[in-house]
Design a protein that fits this description.
Elements: H1 9-33, H2 36-89, H3 95-176, H4 181-193, E1 200-204, E2 207-208, H5 217-225, E3 230-231, E4 238-241
Parallel strand pairs: 1-4
Antiparallel strand pairs: 1-2, 3-4
Length: 250
């Protein structure tokens, strides 16, 4: 960072206050955007998760379809074998052959019953998966609409504010060049401490403009003459007199 020319305390306070004004305007733009960027990001993460679940369910339904198809194939094969064995029963030569063929027919009938049972179970499980799939597909469709609406809303705000934001960023960068590094470090540290980002505040009606605690009269006088940088003993914010708004010399 280039060296900052020697400044009076008043100039330093004015520079800090000017930077605070710029950063506060940028903060107002951020508030205007609100939580939309985070909401868009959260919705996109949820959509990714829903797509993963949807794919798993689709794969599960597909596997069950294949299982049902396999059992139906088994049933047809068993029915064909039963017809074959029943025809052979017409030509048996002894009881041993009759008993063997009869046993094979019974076994194939049991195979059919087992496959039919497996098909019923698979159909129930498949229907359950399909119901879940339909719910997720509906939710995914809604989330896609939600994220698109949020993106449109955000893009409108960005379009409305981007020029002003770019201008403020340049002004902030320029203002920072007029402030020594030590003060910038303290300024940024204080700003990060508070949600409203106020590090430099005016004394209004005898109170700190940040935490609203009373400022002793003698300290108010010292703040007004701007001979040293004074921080609020309660919140640590830099205090400036309201006259700084008019650019009054120290």
């Amino acid at each position: 960072m280039a060296a900052v020319k020697e400044q009076s305390i008043g100039d330093k306070l004015r520079a800090l206050h000017a930077l605070q004004q710029i950063d506060s305007k940028m903060g107002e733009i951020a508030i205007l955007k609100g939580e939309l960027p985070m909401e868009v990001s959260d919705l996109e993460d949820e959509i990714t998760g829903l797509k993963t679940r949807l794919k798993k369910l689709e794969n599960a339904v597909s596997e069950m379809d294949q299982e049902i198809l396999a059992h139906n194939t088994n049933i047809k094969e068993s029915e064909a074998l039963i017809l074959k064995y029943e025809k052979q029963l017409d030509n048996v030569k002894n009881n041993r052959e009759f008993d063997a063929l009869t046993k094979e027919v019974e076994l194939q009938k049991l195979e059919i019953q087992l496959s039919q049972k497996k098909i019923r179970e698979a159909n129930i499980a498949r229907d359950t998966k399909k119901e879940a799939l339909d719910v997720i597909a509906t939710k995914l469709n809604q989330r896609n609409k939600d994220v698109e609406n949020k993106k449109v809303e955000l893009s409108k705000i960005i379009e409305k504010t981007e020029k002003e934001e770019a201008k403020l960023l340049k002004e902030s960068d320029k203002a920072r060049k007029d402030i020594e590094e030590r003060l910038l470090v303290s300024y940024d540290k204080i700003r990060k401490t508070y949600r409203n980002g106020l590090a430099v505040v005016t004394v209004a009606r005898g109170a700190c403009g940040g935490c609203f605690n009373r400022i002793p009269p003698q300290l108010q006088i010292e703040i007004g003459v701007m001979k040293k940088i004074i921080a609020c003993e309660h919140c640590g914010r830099v205090l400036v007199d309201e006259s700084i708004l008019a650019g009054k010399d120290d």
